[in-house]
Amino acid sequence: MMQVNGGARPTQRTIAERAGVSVAAVSRALADDPKIAEHTRAQIKEIAAQIGYIPDRAAQRLRTGRTQVINLILPPHEEIFGFGTSLISGISRALSATSYHLVVTPDFGLEEQGNVIERVVQNRLADGIIFSRTAPHDRRVRYLLEADFPFICHGRTELATPHPYVDFDNFEFARQATEQLVGSGAERLAIVLPPENLTFRQHLLHGFMTAVRAVGVAHEIVDSVSLDSDAAALKSAMQDRFHAGSPPDGLVCPGEMAGLAALAAVQDTGLVPGRDVKLVIKQASGVFDLVRPKVGSLYEDLEGAGFELATRLLRRIAGEPVESLQHVQRVLGAPGR
Question: Which listed residue, 87, 113, 241, 302, has the most CB atoms within 10 A of its CB?
Fold first, then answer.
C-alpha cells in the first residue's frame, strides 16, 4: 500500500488530484455511477486501492442517509454443518466489489422473534437485512413490508404480499431422494422433517408424499423428533424405530446432523447401511463424501445462496421491483453441478 501525504489518511480529494478529475466525479465513480465512463471508474478505483483509501462511513451516512451496512441475522443452525460460514462466504463475495460491508448479528432466540430486526430498523443500523428460517406467516416479513425496509429472506412464506427471497427447492429434493430410495429397492420409507412452524417443512412433506403416492410404497413421518432435535435425540428416536416392528428400509434425511444420527442408529442397531437401510441425505458441507459406507446424497449450495441473497438485496435497495428478486435454487447431484 502506498504512503500518502506523510501518513495522512487519503481522501477523495487525494484521488481526484491523482486522477485529474473532480471530487464529485470520484464520489460518483466509487459509487459505480454508470454516467461515469467505465475506464474512468476503473482508474479511480485502482488509485483508491493503491493509496489505501477507506470511505469515511460517518460522512457518507450524513451525506446519503445510508449506512453502507448489510445486516445478517444469524440463528443457530445445527441441521447443516457450516451453515453460517457458507452463507457469510457467499454474501461477502457479492459485497466485495461494493462499498457495503457485512455485520452479523447472532440470534439465539433469547428475545421474542423479530425484536432483533425491529431494533435494526428503528435505529437505522443497516440499509438492508438478511435472515433465514422463515415461517408460513412470518411476522418479521410482515413487519419489514409494513416498514418498507429493504430485506431478503432465505426461505419463503405464504404471505399474500410478494417479498424478496432465495430458497432451496426442498420439494424437489424430497421427491428426488424418495425416487432414489425406491429405485434402489426400498419399500418402507420414512422422512425426518423440520419443526411445524417452518415453511420448508411443507415443501419437504409435499415432495415426499408426491413421490411415495406415485409408486404406492409404505411410508411414515418420524414424528417424535425434528431436524432441530439434538443429535442424541435423533439417534435415540431412530434407533427405537429400527427396533420396532416393520421398520423403514429407506430414510430421507434433509439435514446433515440427522443423516449422521441416522447412520449411527442404523449401525448401532446391527443393521448395514445400504443393504438393510438405504439413506439419502441433503448435504451442503460435503462431509458425507468422506463417510463410509457411502450413502446417497443431494446437495444444497449455501455459498451460492449467500451470493444470491446479497446480490438481490442490493438490487432491492436500489429500487428494483420485488417480483424480480425471488429465486429458488435447484437441487445438485454433486457440488457445483
Answer: 87
